Amino acid sequence: MTLQELNQLVRNNLRQFMPGTYWVQAEVSECKEHFSGHCYLELIQKKEGQDALCAKARATIWANTWQSLGPSFAQQTGTRLASGLQILAEVTVDFHELYGFSLVIRDIDPSYTLGNQAMRRREILKRLENEGVIDQNKELVWPELPRCLAIVSSPGAAGYQDFMRQLTDNDYGFVFHTALFPATMQGQGAASSIIAALDNIVENTVPFDVVVIIRGGGAVADLGCFDDYDLCYYATQYPIPLLTGLGHDKDNAILDRVAHMSVKTPTAAAEYLIDTLLDKAGELDDKADRLVRRANQILENEKLNLHTMPGRVVNRVQDRLMHAKLKVESAKSGLKEQAIHALTQGRQQNTLFASRLSMACRTTFAHETMQIRLFEQSVNSFSPSKMLERGFSLTLHQGKALRSIKEVEEGSIVETRVADGRFTSVVHTKQPNNE
Amino acid sequence: MQEVEQILSALEKDNPDIDEMSERVKRAVDLLQACKDKLYSTDEEIKRVFEQLNAQNK
Asked: Does ipTM exceed 0.85?
């Protein structure tokens, strides 16, 4: 028997004993669409709770099946058939002499994948929650005027064009500055490509207000990457507020949940940003109005003040004048009284003073008279004749009274006067007092 | 924006004399204008940097 004959035998037996279809749960580990239109997959099963495989099979979706199955699966699950997905597939078992064992997929139940995805998503959400990071991007302060925008999108995407058009053609004339950071937004590698773009943004020196992640336009939805744990964890740790518009109307992706703000479409994202500025513009107008109103009010008050000022000045001046007049009047009468008083008092004082003066004069006079008398007496007692009577004598030389022995010589003739007469004598000897 | 609000509430609360008022109003108007500029006019400096960035990222 040839190898071909053996293989034909296996094939025939398989067809005979396993003719029908089977619903099989498996994980897609590879999925490639061939240019012929067929889709080739590899299905695996891992050991419970481990990464090690316990089963593996090749599988094929023929082009005529894939044409309708591919899009409908993507539409219903929100993700393209790709590796990592858990699927429930209706298969027939096939064996080919040359290519060996494989499964032919006839149908896939999207609700199984969806349920599985939802479960996985719940797990990831729970994990982010347990790690305490899930709201961290939301906790960032949304900027007052978000006008410097970094955009993560694929440049050619219709969603990006929509977003830009909406933003630049806004009716209010708001100006935004945008910089595009291109990323792959679907399929494998999308999550890491988005992370790389986000990395690139923060490494930039430009201080962006908001990072907008947009996607959309294509009919095929592949949002699996937006549930990627690594991407979503990274997003929670991102230092700039994130705004997502991922272009889907199914359940929110986890990235939507962790972003600061999420809207359905890129267009809605642009509208949200415009609305933020519109709010601010309204607030500004409001404040400007208040300012003008209040300033006018103050001016009006001031004007009123000025208006009544002349009258108030006259009143004030009159008041002052009256007051001054009164003061002068009272001063006048006061002055008169005071003058009279002063005069009377002065007169009285004069009289008193006069009598006191005459009295003082008299006293002084008497005193002086007495003094003079006493003095007279003492003067008299010192007169030369009195002195002579009291035994003193006066000696003259050449008609002058002698006061010193130096005025005479031995042999000089001197005249001495006593009380009752005079006599002359010759100086016999001279002797000073101390010897 | 905050400063504008502060000036406004102060103006609305007390009765400033006319010189003080005009000074405060002037400051508030300047601030409001700066905010409006941010909303409606292109910051040439930023524009230039962004154009460079976009050229790099292409």
From this structure: no
